[in-house]
Design a protein that fits this description.
With 240 residues, the chain is α+β, with helices and mostly antiparallel strands. The chain folds into three domains: 51 residues, Roll (Structural Genomics Hypothetical 15.5 Kd Protein In mrcA-pckA Intergenic Region, Chain A), CATH 3.10.290; 88 residues, 2-Layer Sandwich (Alpha-Beta Plaits); 76 residues, 2-Layer Sandwich (Alpha-Beta Plaits). Helices cover 23% and strands 26% of the residues. It contains seven helices and 15 strands. Strands 5, 6, 7, 8, 11, 12, 13, 14 and 15 form a nine-stranded mixed sheet that branches. The chain has a four-stranded antiparallel sheet with strand order 2-1-3-4. Strand 11 and strand 12 form a beta hairpin. The longest helix is centred in the C-terminal third of the chain and has 10 residues.
Length: 240
Amino acid sequence: MRLAKYLAHAGVASRRAAEQMIAAGRVSVGGDVVTDPARDVDDASAVSVDGRPLGGAEPRVVYALHKPVGVLSTAHDTHGRTTVLDLVREPDLRLYPVGRLDADSSGLILLSNDGELANRLTHPSFEVPKTYRAKLARGPVERRALAALRAGVLLDDGPTAPAVVRRLGPSELELTIHEGRNRQVRRMCAAVGHPVLELARTGFGPLALGTLAPGAHRRLDASELERLRAVAGSPAARGL
């Protein structure tokens, strides 16, 4: 098995993050630092990360967390700020966030030790939908702005795919997208003249935030995991 894939299966990180760790010289095989993510390894190869031996694959788990505003959706922060892992303390598991949610946004974020699933859920070719509730400035939101969001908005990094948009109030929208660019919903709304005041993710694929309280988390059950894997099972494009 390729080294990067082995690390993902062991719950260390997603495949892309594992490749970065390998390139940074943080991974050794049989005591020697390896920087080639394609190196063939197995459970007998004595793989270590940051000097810590891996003990094989962990049981695959996914947690749903209601991230509050101000909490970072990263595994570690060099400035000591609160991260999502501080809210989901599982010392026996190597959890990491699946994708990102801005520090000034709240709502549903997933944490897992399943690198392959995380890669499928976040790679744009799988088109996993994410739903947001946005409170906007300069309301009410007019039909022209709604039509622009539904058709796709031209941003500085190119046009977006069409969003599914539902009006919740004069200045409040529900938007579903499947691309996941950096701060995409905020940029789309600003581009049609309505900067975002508050933003919360309410859905990730088949999962809904529901009544999960801010800062609270829960482990997904078997049926939820099955539905999550199903929605990420068929890519819209090949060549991953």
